[in-house]
Design a protein that fits this description.
Low-confidence stretches: none
Radius of gyration: 20 Å
CATH class of the largest domain: Alpha Beta
CATH architecture of the largest domain: 3-Layer(aba) Sandwich
Mean pLDDT: 93
Largest sheet: 6 strands, mixed
Bound molecules: guanosine-5'-diphosphate, magnesium ion
Order of helices and strands: EHEEHEHEHEHHHEEHHEHH
Shape: globular
Strand order of the largest sheet: 2-3-1-4-5-6
């Protein structure tokens, strides 16, 4: 048996969460075309007869502008040092820049075995691939490079095999049927956030948190009552979220409810309201209250280590 942790690292929007969902075979992390979709570190677990891969999804690499985004960045950094393998994901469709190579070099220098997934090959000309691979190799990156498409499932099996070969021998880390370390409540709030990411312009979703106020299964009937609060930063954001006659929010809520029903395999009564908390993203106590306690813990751990040195 081989088992271990694989940190999935790369720029925002590279396709990390999509790749993990495809490999795990279930949606463990939400996906959207906007950067900063993944906020928290999420584990996605793939268990087969003779191996277990624990993927660590990270928020990715980008410029931090609030306390929340700074925590997200730091989480990415520490995750890379504490795993068996780094899977560096790069967007093939965007092409390879010097900056991409500099990032790969940085993670290579951690001394952890690394593979590169060059993804989204389904939406780019295939003849661009060899040139980009040469660029990566000439940039001093020694890792094997796998051109893949998460959307089409192309070359995913090969990548999986290569990851397994780099894992240490050992017992399973998680029980057979575990696919994520996150609770149902967490996934419910994430599903709502995904629909908001898809529906509104980026300044709105980046400034919201979704708080589960009630998550209750009825005693009879396969039915959940779920109440959510969407916390936003400004009164004008609240107005945009709700929309004319509540139409915008109604639409987002209806998409979310459908996905929640799929996820819970039950009927869902969903009620959603919007409230304003100015600048919550810069207030640690609110970041904790809104469910990002893991991010805070991570930050405190680092400060502790720093002050020890
Ligand atoms: N065409 C195509 N799109 C992809 C692929 N993988 C991810 N995407 C899209 O790229 C965007 C960002 O994906 P996401 O997984 O959220 O990226 P992350 O920020 O790195 O986690 C989403 O719109 C995905 O649907 C792929 O293999 N092919
Ligand atoms: Mg992501």
């Amino acid at each position: 048996m081989r088992a271990g942790y694989v940190a999935v690292i790369g720029r925002a929007n590279a396709g990390k969460s999509t790749l993990i969902n495809v490999m795990v075979g279930e949606k463990v992390a939400i996906v959207s075309p906007k950067p900063q979709t993944t906020r928290d570190r999420i584990l996605g677990v793939l268990t087969k007869e003779d191996y277990q891969i624990v993927f660590v999804d990270t928020p990715g690499i980008y410029k931090a502008s609030t306390a929340l985004s700074e925590m997200m960045m730091k989480t990415t950094e520490t995750t890379g040092r504490d795993v068996d393998v780094i899977l560096f994901v790069t967007d093939g469709h965007k092409g390879i820049s010097e900056e991409d190579i500099a990032l790969m070099s940085r993670y290579q220098s951690y001394g952890v075995p690394m593979l590169v997934a060059y993804t989204k090959t389904d939406i780019m000309p295939e003849e661009n691939i060899p040139g980009d691979i040469v660029k990566i190799v000439n940039g001093g990156i020694e890792s094997d490079i796998f051109p893949v498409s998460a959307r089409k499932g192309k070359n995913i099996a090969k990548l999986e095999k290569a990851l397994v070969a780099l894992l240490p021998e050992g017992d399973k880390i998680f029980e057979q049927d575990i696919i994520s370390d996150k609770s149902e409540r967490f996934m419910i709030s994430e599903i709502m956030r995904e629909k908001i990411l898809l529906k509104y312009d980026k300044e709105i979703p980046h400034g919201i948190a979704v708080v589960v106020e009630r998550f209750a299964k009825r005693e009879t009937g396969n039915l959940y009552d779920i109440d959510l609060a969407i916390v936003c930063e400004k009164p004008n954001h609240k107005a945009i979220l709700i929309g004319k006659q509540g139409q915008a929010l109604k639409e987002a809520t209806s998409f979310a409810r459908k996905d929640m029903e799929k996820f819970l395999d039950a009927k869902v009564f969903l009620s959603v309201f919007v409230k304003v908390k100015e600048d919550w993203r810069d207030k640690p106590e609110l970041i904790r209250e809104y469910g990002y306690a893991d991010l805070l813990k991570e930050l405190q751990e680092q400060e502790r280590k720093k002050s020890k040195k």
